[in-house]
Amino acid sequence: MLRIALQSKGRLYEESAALLGSIGINIDDPKRKFLSKASNFPLEVLYLRDDDIPQVVSSGTASLGIVGLNEVREKGCDVRVVAPLGFGGCRLSVAIPKDKAASYEGPQSLQGLRIATSYPNILNGFLKENGVSASVEVICGSVEIAPAAGIADAIFDIVSSGGTLVSNSLVEVQKVFRSEAVLIANNDLSQEDSALLDEILFRIEADKDSKGKKYLLMNIPTASLDEAIKILPAMRSPTVMPLASEGWCSLHSVVNAEDLWVKVRQLKAIGAEGILVIDLDKIIL
Ligand code: PRT
Ligand code: ZN
Question: Which residues make Cβ contacts (< 8 Å) with residue 276, sequence separation at least 6?
Answer without folding.
Answer: 216, 217, 218
